């Protein structure tokens, strides 16, 4: 039967090689970047030593074998050779985004068998009645080489794969964030994105690394158990019982610690929020030492809760580790002291072999059990990543992806219409606030001011107009076409009061607009402060008013048919305020833009074509 199984393995190996060769010919598998000389030669040397040694051992076996056994040896030789060719090919021509689970599984099995075979060979050599059997030394070395070579190949593939997984996961989260509805992002607990992008992806990937060790240990243990079963079935069943009992106890305790880990994971979100506050509120904390003291206490409280929860969880685990170790000692004690009376026919050599192999297995076994906490933590992180993605995507996922929205398709003449549009914060809560119902039309070539007291709903209306919010009732249409949230953005250039200034001109063809950019730098009196090189600002470390002017430059270059400015002039000196109202806005209007301005500057109200006054979210 074995001959057939190995034969099948050979066929599978040959087919895999053919598939890779086809992939290389078609260009799907690209050669990896040139290796550093020393790394390449060490790999070749290692392979030569391994295959040379393997060849010698197989030849040694061949000499003392029957014809039938020789067929198996020939098959094994061919299998190793083909596997070597396959590994060399896939090592030098890595497939992009490859997930070589089968290869890794086989490498894990090989190196696990190598690991286990060392102790079997030692066991066979040490208890021989005629003294230590030195003739078995080559097989011991072969076990070592198989283990080391298998691990080396396995880990190099694993490093490639886990880093690929982290990259993919991070990009996936980033894409989800970029496509998420603004409302979901706004409502998101601060610190959650950082924890997810940073910690959770790391936890998952480092566990993937651990999986390899677990795989190798499992193979070593399985091989050990098979060996034990061959020596003595009752002893095997007893030790298996102990392992199952220890694992069961471990599992139960870890499950109870799981809830604590979930809580520590929640605390991490809070911790990142503190870091955020620390960075952005540093000025206040620096100036006011009592504020800094209270902040420190608050943060220390959160860190202490984290510490205590972790300690509680880890103490639970520590208890089982001790019990687990004790169980292994107990089973060995039983074998040595109880087996001779339980199984009088059992020979002393068998007893010794049993203890010997079991001692060797205890290490990997405890390591697997000790890895279970990490497994649970990785599971928590994985769950968090998934629920984070789901929370962001929401039910009302944006139709268009961000790749599409970078392509603008704006019409020159626009009519933006709000029809009985309502947006309400905290719909089902007591303290809700609603803007609307609003029925209004904004047209190209018109300058509209939105005015009203603090909290009257001006910025909320602006978010509704620009498609950051989707109306709860009514609709927003552009040139008669109903718009979903996020679709209006391609037609609008905005400067909100809390606008963020990127240091690069994202989404703007800078080369085509370089001269225009220089012109606006002069117009906005920024040419002494900032320069633009390859679409990147030389600095964004400017005064608040200057930063707003730079944002205005970006808005000019965006060149969208609708312009919305939220209290832009509030941070400007009288000269620039005058320039903004008396020169810039009329200029944009005469270019045919639909200009919407949120303002408190009542001296300039007369310049607008229409003024909307908001009171408690409604047009007064
Ligand atoms: N993200 C939010 N979640 C819940 N309520 C909000 C949110 N943003 C604003 N509000 C509420 O909506 C109301 C209107 O806020 P908005 O920012 O639109 O007012 P505004 O007219 O722009 O005020 P200001 O002149 O002070 O900028 C406020 O009472 C505020 O409490």
UniProtKB/TrEMBL annotation:
Annotated ABC transmembrane type-1 domain residues: 101-377
Domain ABC transporter residue range list: 416-620
Compartments, record wording: Cell membrane
Domain of life: Bacteria
Location, primary (coarse class): membrane
InterPro entries in UniProt: AAA+_ATPase, ABC1_TM_dom, ABC1_TM_sf, ABC_transporter-like_ATP-bd, Cyc_pep_transpt_SyrD/YojI, ECF_ABC_transporter_ATP-bd, P-loop_NTPase
Membrane topology qualifier: Multi-pass membrane protein
Gene3D superfamilies: ABC transporter type 1, transmembrane domain, P-loop containing nucleotide triphosphate hydrolases
Transmembrane segments: 6-24, 44-62, 68-89, 101-126, 132-150, 211-230, 236-254, 317-342, 354-376
Keyword terms of this UniProt record: ATP-binding, Membrane, Nucleotide-binding, Transmembrane, Transmembrane helix, Transport
Similarity comment text for this entry: Belongs to the ABC transporter superfamily.
NCBIfam families: cyc_pep_trnsptr
Name of the protein this chain belongs to: Cyclic peptide export ABC transporter
